[in-house]
Design a protein that fits this description.
Elements: E1 5-6, E2 9-18, H1 20-32, E3 36-43, E4 50-59, H2 63-73, E5 77-80, E6 86-88, E7 94-96, E8 101-104, E9 108-113
Antiparallel strand pairs: 1-2, 2-4, 2-9, 3-4, 5-8, 6-7
Helix pairs in contact: 1-2
This protein binds ligand 2BA.
Length: 123
């Protein structure tokens, strides 16, 4: 397998899907500790609620510390499914449905090998 090296070190790309309430704290902690990150607006496929995906490109040996920082800054929360709490029956009548609670978070994290890493610019 080809490993892309930055200064002789292999690079990983961390995808961290996190709740919007955790973004500020986590990003400032990561940046304070010298990590670089990109914040993408995303939407969960199941609840269709907004969340945030962070891309963090990092040398392999710094992955563990990044994961620790993510863990320390992302909370578990219980949220209600945002669909309206009723449904329409076969005869047009409203059927009350109890809202469903889901436990969301901390962070869903993928770590992949970066097969290329460069910064392109004109001299
Ligand atoms: P959502 O897909 O909107 O999922 C929100 C929460 O709903 C999940 O929290 C989980 O508690 C629940 N959930 C998701 N799919 C479910 C299902 N098929 N049946 C029952 N409950 C379900 P988390 O697991 O903390 O996930 C938070 C967000 O992270 C997800 O938002 C999604 O955007 C992302 N995510 C989680 N697992 C992923 C995966 N394997 N691949 C890609 N994205 C993922």
């Amino acid at each position: 397998m080809v490993k892309v090296l930055k200064g002789g070190k292999s690079m990983k790309l961390i995808f961290a899907i996190i709740q919007e309430a955790d973004v500020r704290g986590l990003l400032s902690r990561l940046i304070d500790k010298g990590y670089k990150a990109t914040k993408l607006a995303s939407t969960g496929g199941f609840l269709k609620a907004r969340n945030t995906t962070l891309l963090i490109g990092v040398e392999e040996e710094k992955v563990e510390n990044a994961l620790r920082i993510i863990k320390e800054n992302c909370r578990k929360r219980t949220i209600l499914d945002p669909i309206p709490p009723y449904s329409i029956g076969a005869h047009g009548e409203y059927i009350h449905m109890d809202p469903v609670e889901y436990v969301v978070g901390g962070a869903t994290v993928f770590v992949i090998d970066a097969i290329d890493y460069s910064k392109e610019m004109e001299d």
